[in-house]
Structure prediction request, 229 residues.
Amino acid sequence: MSPEPTGIQRTDNGWRIDLNNGNLECEKIVNTMPVNDYTTLLGSILPREVHKAASTLKFRALVFLTVLLNGDIEPSDHWIYTSEDRYLFNRLSIPRNFDADAPSQVVFEYSCQVGDRIWNMSKQKLLESSVPGAEHLGLFTADMVKGADVNRMSHAYPIYDLGYAEKTAVVLDALESLSGSVTCGRQGLFRYNNMDHSIEMGKYAALEIMGKASVKNHFNWDGSTWADG
Ligand SMILES: Cc1cc2nc3c(=O)[nH]c(=O)nc-3n(C[C@H](O)[C@H](O)[C@H](O)COP(=O)(O)OP(=O)(O)OC[C@H]3O[C@@H](n4cnc5c(N)ncnc54)[C@H](O)[C@@H]3O)c2cc1C
Prediction:
């Protein structure tokens, strides 16, 4: 909705969210922003050890290059993984194979970190890396390219390094104990989940707000269920 949250304060009735263009009073908060951005906004409401644990939670970024094509391409796959070193992109998708109304196009995905060489590559440079790769894969030829667009996503995947589960639990337990605040979703729970899980989390966030269920009880974060979504 454009306003950017810059801080969160407790009030007698709930919360005040400071924005870059004003503020917003509310009784309850449902958070879906990256969990460590949320803890930063909560500031001194949370103890120091929670901020320390949150600062260790990192996300992998993605750059998407969408290449619009003249003419159809043959593969019927939704996704193709390209783990060989010769390709800078590590996965591509073909939207028309899951939506017949989509234009003929291929979306190349480049895993990276915010600010690194890939993150900063221009559209032209990304095209120079994707088109020869597509030709090598037999997907399409350079003369079929009609246009291209680039999107950058800073928080695409939670990075599960050693000890992440314990550190995440410190953060999520602290957030769980805040009355009137529910954190959920892929970034909000630092959980590598899919759409169906996210929709279910939305449902449980609503039930928690109504006092009828808890996200924690349903999406247990104390161990084995992390990587399976
Ligand atoms: C490349 C890729 C491919 C995927 N493929 C599949 C698939 O094939 N099938 C499948 O089921 N799932 C897939 N997923 C996973 C699926 O997309 C996610 O699980 C789902 O979109 C997460 O939904 P969410 O509501 O939790 O988070 P999001 O949809 O990311 O929503 C979070 C919201 O919070 C907002 N937000 C973030 N920060 C702030 C801020 N500071 N201030 C205000 N708002 C903020 C964002 O703008 C966003 O609207 C894929 C994910 C990726 C990255």
In short: The CA atoms of residues 72 and 111 lie 27 Å apart.
